[in-house]
Anti-sigma factor NepR domain-containing protein
Amino acid sequence: MYGYVASKTPKDKVQQDIKANLKRVYDEVLNEPVPERFKALLAQLRDQDKAKKPDV
């Protein structure tokens, strides 16, 4: 736009660090196993759904 490349400022470095840390934390949470409590709730919902639907 103005014909120059913006230099890395301390603010840019902080933003890069925040981005990297957020990605790391997100990846860690994404790779956690599903808690047994949630699996049990999902199974209950599936069973309820099957009971409501007529066999086709």
The chain is about 70% helix and 0% strand.
